[in-house]
């Protein structure tokens, strides 16, 4: 495991965050999670492009160019020596005595590189159970902001009930998971919430839609409600860490056992890096 703070590599356990860090005091920053397969970061360009968009959305000036960021990530991977890794990186509005409005400070980049939290093959085959919860987040969920309190609370509710994910519902519409996007399949058509401000525009989500079209599976970016989700033929979540993960149970409803489309997409996704 290795970490990086401001301009240097540090030990993950080293105490490096000044108490007046904006990320620490306000959650004033943005982040990305990148999966590394066999030493190569997967869809790095897409993640860095989204980071740049999140930065622009909160009027944050990036401390490094994308080129420099890429070099720091590659150096971190080299130093860690971890081939199957997850890279967490964040940028905050810097260090300054506490005041709400933007300080006259430079943004701070930090990063950790660690062994990926592997998901059990049995869970990948059997699928997870999910619970539906009211989406109480703000209306700019397309920004990958550090403010994850609603996500953290939802994830805890799911975990304490033995569920794999919490799925948010806003005004009756299924939006996304606490740390994933969600898809439902009905009559051989794949549905997912459109890429509006109400969801994070997942990198995995976009890739899976592309793979579906390559397989001549119809995809509709169309919002659906919880009744639709509970009556669908198949459902799955996507994320950098989960990849394509089937949903077996929604609240108290068990979905059908056969999942031809989910299985096809999960296999095609895995094929991209193996
Ligand atoms: N979460 N929606 C939310 C709210 C997320 O936090 C994530 C990712 C996704 C999926 O995005 P992507 O396919 O680009 O990983 C959707 C990361 C993995 C996390 O917070 O750990």
From TrEMBL:
Gene3D superfamilies given for it? 3.30.470.10, D-amino Acid Aminotransferase, subunit A, domain 2 (3.20.10.10)
> Is Transferase among this UniProt entry's keywords?
no
Query: Mind naming one GO cellular-component term on file for this protein?
Result: cytosol
**What Pfam families does the entry give?**
Aminotran_4 (PF01063)
GO MF entry, a single one: catalytic activity
Keywords, A to Z, come to: Pyridoxal phosphate
Give GO terms for biological process. amino acid biosynthetic process; carboxylic acid biosynthetic process
**InterPro entries xref list:** Aminotrans_IV, Aminotrans_IV_CS, Aminotransferase-like, BCAT-like_C, BCAT-like_N, Class-IV_PLP-Dep_Aminotrnsfr
**Cofactor field:** pyridoxal 5'-phosphate
Q: Which domain of life is it from?
A: Bacteria
Family designation:
Belongs to the class-IV pyridoxal-phosphate-dependent aminotransferase family.
This protein's assembly is summarised as: Homodimer.
PANTHER family given for it? AMINO-ACID AMINOTRANSFERASE (PTHR42743), D-ALANINE AMINOTRANSFERASE (PTHR42743:SF10)
* UniProt-recorded name of the protein: D-alanine transaminase
The species this protein belongs to is Evansella caseinilytica
